[in-house]
Amino acid sequence: AMTTLEDRLAAAPPVAAARAALGDDADGAWIVGGTLRDALLGRAVKDVDLAVAGDAQGAARAVARAVDGPAFPLSKAFGAWRAMHPDERWVCDVSPLQGETIEDDLRRRDFTVNAMAVPLGGGELLDPCGGREDLDAGVLRVVGGPELERSSYAADPLRPLRLARLTAETPLRPDRDTERLTAAAAARVVEASPERVFAELRRLVIADGVLDALELADRLGLVAAVLPEVAALHAGEQSHFHHLDVYEHTVEVLR
Asked: Rounded CA gap, 231 and 27, in Å?
């Protein structure tokens, strides 16, 4: 399976661009997150996420220079940068390691399927949280559970909503512990910035799996947290001409 993973990564233009641009510096860089998840799911790799031990800004600028595209800061808080293909065909997001080592960084990520890495220059899959096994089983599992305070949800209030968005975009589904933790953490999603909440909602609503994801989000209290006016529709009675309540009718319109 490693050869197919390597083949899929090698065939992705942003990976090729990053390898060409960073050359000898590729030793301190890893392909991480959704890029690996999608490659392992057999999906086309459109963009690439990198974690670097050194200078994220310098790495992003080098990738941008290599393709004659722009580079700009993504997050002041985390020091992340984005390099873009000039025709916007792909993006390369570069983040400094969160923690001393790549393993520390991975253990601070949201779900086990997003907590894997491969050295940019090629090499063995790093998987300290058992993400590969969960991916093969189709499971979304919170990193660091099963206690809420020790789980990855404690580090970022947006993550429960990201779970719903991932169920809309992938065939993955949460295990029972993760459902329980998501329900417990749902009310705190509104502590994240409105821009971040909107970005997740937008991706959820335009994804193919929106109906199942919305059902999950509703059941786990996420709709009540971020779209209280939609959750309130459950109580709405309609005239006898309608066989559905207002919430179900609204979902039917979305369908």
From this structure: 49
pTM beyond 0.70: the answer is yes
Q: Please tell me the predicted confidence (pLDDT) of residue 236.
A: 64
Residue linked to tokens 């050194």: 54
Query: What tens digit of pLDDT does each residue of 106-130 get?
Result: 999 999 999 999 999 989 999 999 9
What does each C-alpha distance from 238 to 215, 230, 234, 250 come to in angstroms?
21, 15, 11, 12
Phi, psi of 22 (to 5 degrees): -90, -20
Show the DSSP H helices in the chain as ranges. Answer: 2-10, 13-22, 34-40, 56-67, 102-107, 131-137, 159-169, 176-185, 194-206, 210-219, 222-226, 228-231, 246-254
- The answer for residues whose C-beta is within 8 angstroms of residue 58's C-beta and 6 or more apart is none
Q: Do the beta carbons of residue 150 and residue 144 sit within 8 Å? A: yes
Read off φ and ψ for residue 32, nearest 5 degrees. Answer: -135, 175
User: 10 Å Cβ neighbour count for 38?
Assistant: 18
Residue 30, SS3? Answer: strand
